[in-house]
Design brief:
The chain is of the alpha/beta class. The protein has one domain: 5'-nuclease (Rossmann fold, 3-Layer(aba) Sandwich), CATH 3.40.50.1010. It is 40% helix and 27% strand. It has 7 helices and 7 strands, in the order E-H-H-E-H-E-E-H-E-H-E-H-E-H. A hairpin with a 5-residue loop joins strand 3 and strand 4. Helix 4 runs parallel beside helix 5. 30% of the residues are buried. The mean pLDDT is 91.
């Protein structure tokens, strides 16, 4: 039997956890560290990495876009392009919708389709038995039904999440294995700048 791991990264969530800890993430190191952690808990078999999937929202730009929006959009596009060039890496982007302004007059944006894309990929790979192990980097309880279904298919599900207040309690409970994105883990995936 071939043992395969797929890694599913909620990019906005990981960026939030990393930023709080003053860390820029090296995504190649992230994939390696997750594979190493999963492999260390299952030493009697060799686990291959199928792919790391990164999910985030496309950026919203005004019509016409401001200079700051253009600059930030180009910066993010370069970042997504670099991720796509990593070995066994796929970037999946949802959309970002403008939702008005807050009390201070700042624009409010909301990510759409990202959780659905992540959940669909996770469920399809699990149902097709393309993977035996799944690692999910998220804090969103929207993943709970997909994890429950994957476990019914015999998939070992790992959750990589920040401190308790950064993730849903039921998400932590439903995973087979849990790894906290503590300072030690974040330092191991730190981008050397």
């Amino acid at each position: 039997m071939i043992f395969r791991l797929a890694i599913f990264v909620d990019g906005a969530y990981l960026e939030k956890v990393a930023k709080k800890n003053d860390v820029w993430v090296d995504y190649e190191k992230l994939s390696y560290q997750i594979l190493a952690r999963v492999s260390a808990r299952t030493p009697s078999v060799t686990i291959d990495l199928l792919r790391t999937y990164y999910y985030n929202g496309r950026l919203h730009q005004s019509n016409p876009p401001t200079e700051a929006e253009k600059e930030y959009f180009q910066k993010r596009r370069r970042f997504y392009d670099k991720l796509e060039q990593l070995p066994s890496f796929t970037v999946r982007l949802g959309v970002v919708k403008y939702r008005g302004k807050n009390n201070q007059g700042r624009p409010i944006y909301q990510q759409k389709q990202v959780d659905l894309l992540l959940g669909l990929d996770f469920a399809l790979l699990s149902a097709k038995r393309s993977i035996t192990h799944a690692a999910v980097v998220t804090g969103d309880s929207d993943m709970v039904p997909a994890i429950e279904e994957a476990k019914k298919e015999g998939i070992a599900v790992w959750l990589f999440a920040g401190e308790p207040q950064s993730h849903a309690r039921e998400l932590w409970q439903v995973a087979d294995e849990r790894v906290e994105l503590d300072q030690g883990f974040l330092d191991a995936i730190r981008l050397n700048r």
